[in-house]
UniProtKB/TrEMBL annotation:
Signal sequence interval, chain numbering: 1-23
One Pfam family per UniProt: Peripla_BP_4
Protein localization: Cell envelope
CDD domains linked to this entry: PBP1_ABC_sugar_binding-like
Protein name: ABC transporter substrate-binding protein
Species this protein is from: Paraburkholderia sprentiae WSM5005
Amino acid sequence: MKPRTLLATVATSLACASAFASAPDIGLSNGYFGTEWRNQMIDGANQQFQTYKNKGMADKLVVQQSGANTGQQIQDMRNMIRQKVGAIMVDANSATALNGVISQAQRSKIPVVSFDQAVSNPYATNVTVDHYKWGQRYAQWIAEQLHGKGNVVVLDGIPGHPAAEARKKAALDTFAKYPGIKVVWSGYGEWDEAKAQSVMATVIAAQPKIDAVFTEDAMALGVLRAFENANRRVPIMTGEAQKGFLTEWKKQRDAGNPMKVFVQVNPPDISRTALGIAVRLAQGRKLKPLPDNTYYFPITKTVTAENLDATLATMSDKPDSYFLGQWLSEPELDALFAQ
C-alpha cells in the first residue's frame, strides 16, 4: 500500500472512530410501567435505537423506570443530567411536577422530549397524542350510536395521570351535551385488563341497564370478559387496537353478537417518534416552530367492523398483547427540522 493511501485510510478510520465516540447517549425516563402498552413502548424504543446506533447517530440508550413514584422519576432525570446524556426522553407521571428538573436540564443545555403526555415546562418538546381530542372522538361516537340517549359507563386509566384525566374529562364534557345520556358510573381501571374486569364486574352487578362503555387500552378486553362472565352483552363500546381485544371482538361477532365497537390507535410506538426527535436534537439540529412546542401525533388508523378481519390479518404473527403500531418514518422526522 502506498504511504499516501495508508495515511488516507488511517485518517478515515480515525474519523469514523471519532464519530462513534462522540455519538450522544440518550436517556429515557419512564414513569408508570408493567402494562403491556408500556412494555411495547420500551421495546419499540430499544429496537429503534439500534438503527441510530448502527448509523453512528447515538451510542447508548439509558432507560430508567420509576413506577408511579414521581420523586423517583425526578431523581432518575437528575442522574441522567449528571451523566451528561445528549438528550432526555420522558414519559411523565405528572404534567407539572417535573418542571424543576426539566429546568435543570435546560441549564445543562440538554434537550428534553416529553412523549405520550405533555408537560407544562416550555423548554420541553412535547410529542403526544392530543388526549382530549382522542377521548372526545370516542365519546362523540358513543353519543351518536346512542342517538343521544342511554346509560353510559366511563372507565379510564390511572387517577391523576395526565392522559387518563384528559380523556375522562373529554368524555364527561361530551356526554354532558346530551340531556338524554346518563353517566351511571365513572372511575378507573388502571389500564390493566384484570383490574378493569374486576371493577367492571362490580359495576355490572350494580347497574341493571348499561347501554355503552367508554374505555381503552388493555381495559377493553377486561370489560368485555366481565360482560361475558355476567351473561350480559354490552351493546356499544369503545376498545383498543390490541390483538387480544380484536380477536375476542371477532369471536363475539361471529357468534352473532351485534355489539357496535369503535377503536382508534393509541400507539405505544410513539416512543420511536420521540426517540427520532431526541436523537436529532442531541446532534444540534433545530426543530421548526411548533404550536406550544408540541407535536401532536396524528391518529390515522382506526378499526371498525368493516376492517376488523383485515386488521387482524396484519397481526397474525403477533402475540395477543400486541398493540397496532404507528410511528413517523425517517423522512417524516427530518421534515420536522430546519434544513
